[in-house]
């Protein structure tokens, strides 16, 4: 009974989906903590807030199942209240209220003040940069803008997140300083599209200026760039990556496809020739650049020729990092007007073919690193004493890891060390401390 009483007013925030949702949950928890609330992330509490994802079918299914599990726990008396927020709730609120009425209240992506009020807290605008981070202490996401103005035919993000809105540069620098004071040494910049940063506030793209300003923050050692759109790419960012030692030689640029008919139908605003020219510029201007991309198989109208063009292009480009999704037919998107005419099994076969090719490429690229010395950041230690780290070419959770043997040394998380690569698999490296 004492345990139940202690957890009666504890708020448990559950985060689903992408790093943008992680950031939003951290802001929510920071506001709750500042209001004196007992708040935890994915632990135990009798008040549950589910921050949902509504991007594609699998993510929506996971979000719905999590809501249903929480509602069942409420009916069983294990928790007292369930609140739902985030992208799925923004996009499908009327449907969710009708289909799952036992949720206490639903909120959208822009309803933070209302959600806080329902949780007994007031929104405080002055809490710029005050977050209760849920990532390991040494790295953190920094969301530099919200929403998206891009017209991609397959994407529902503008429906859930609204139009692009940059965060003022001075606020982001303030937030970075607060994160650094807490021990963060690696900033991972995120947005729906980093390249649009500044267009609304400053009437020009200012990502390069922002990255430079953030690199001046004492304590920040690495800055990593995620989610950059290829059309209108600000190439001055490449100069900053090349010249500033704090900026990782790493870019996440979701390209989605390469066949010109597919790019046109997807409304990507580019062509195969322009995309290849941009990739060449990246690799020419920044020695050792690691490029991460994501692709879609089975988009409406994708012919075998379109797919073979993309598969051969993947083999030719030899991306350092690559992921693939099968096309998801999303309501109220432009592509929803098209016939979802590629069978599910064909979508999956094409995905498998690309990942098989990428696995071979990744293995070859990793094997070529054997004997090299590289700098790693330590993320964790395994039960057997092996340290697990990442190079500047690897982002947490999605990229390669380096398994480091250092039996007589105690390394703290967030420490930078020099290692020599001694072994390689398709997606991981082995190393010894130098």
Notes on the protein architecture:
The chain is α/β, with parallel strands linked by helices and 434 residues long. Helix content is 36%, strand content 21%. The protein contains 14 helices and 18 strands. Strand 17 and strand 18 (428-433) form a beta hairpin. It is globular, with a radius of gyration of 22 Å.
Q: What structural category arises from helix and sheet content?
A: alpha/beta
Spatial separation of the terminal alpha carbons:
54 Å
- Return Rg in Å: 22 Å
Biggest β-sheet: count, sense, barrel? 6 strands, parallel
Number of strands: 18
What portion of the residues fall into strands of 2 or more residues?
15-25%
Main-sheet strand order equals 6-9-10-11-12-13
Name the shape in a single word: globular
Q: What is the residue-mean pLDDT, rounded to a whole number? A: 95
Give unreliable regions as ranges: none
The amount of helix comes to 25-40%
Secondary structure tally, helices? 14
